[in-house]
Write a structure and sequence with these properties.
87% helix; 188 residues; 2 domains; mainly alpha; globular
């Protein structure tokens, strides 16, 4: 039991630190990937990619969803609770402070400059996250994930249709792929 509590505490402190330093859901995912896959080795690249995809499909804040899933993977229900609390406390405190000092903050030029600098950092983290996922998909040397990525990009960039249709299409492709793989396994 002591080992579980220690792991929950580590999850809480880690998520508290990550949530305090990264300022958007996708930036937090990049830092989570670095922390939980590369540094702590609690997850594999594939597990992290699966969890990112799952988080994007779930309603609610991306960072909270990711912390809950990763926390559950690492430390069951207690781990999920610890990770979610660690992830939620910094934005809650920041929002409370901003609401109290809103008038002074909004008119401050230094705050505007700081926010522009943070935008550049977020873009860099997003590029790192996207590049890592792209490298992992291309290393498997299967054509259909690349084709799906290209089709999804073209769909979202050039059409005005709802992304719901894109999600449903990807689900259909996944189901067909799963059934074909099961059929091949059955023939062996």
């Amino acid at each position: 039991m002591a080992e579980k509590v220690k792991r929950w505490w580590i999850l809480f402190i880690t998520m508290l630190t990550i949530s305090s330093t990264a300022n958007s859901g996708y930036a937090i995912l990049s830092v989570m990937k670095s922390t939980f896959v590369q540094k702590r080795k609690w997850l594999t690249e594939e597990q992290m990619e699966d969890y990112i995809a799952l988080c994007q499909g779930c309603p609610g804040p991306l960072a909270i969803n990711a912390s809950m899933i990763i926390g559950y993977h690492v430390g069951s229900l207690g781990g999920a609770l610890a990770a979610v609390l660690g992830c939620a406390i910094p934005p809650l405190v920041i929002m409370l402070l901003v609401s109290v000092f809103y008038a002074a903050i909004i008119s401050n030029n230094w705050v505007r400059v700081f926010m522009k600098g943070m935008q550049a950092g977020v873009i860099a983290m997003l590029i790192d996250l996207i590049w890592g996922i792209f490298k992992n998909v291309t290393q498997k040397q299967k054509i259909y994930p690349l084709a799906i990525m290209a089709a999804a990009f073209i769909y979202t960039w050039f059409t005005k249709f709802s992304t719901l249709y894109l999600v449903l299409g990807c689900i259909a492709v996944a189901v067909v792929s799963f059934l074909l793989n099961k059929r091949k396994e059955g023939e062996k």
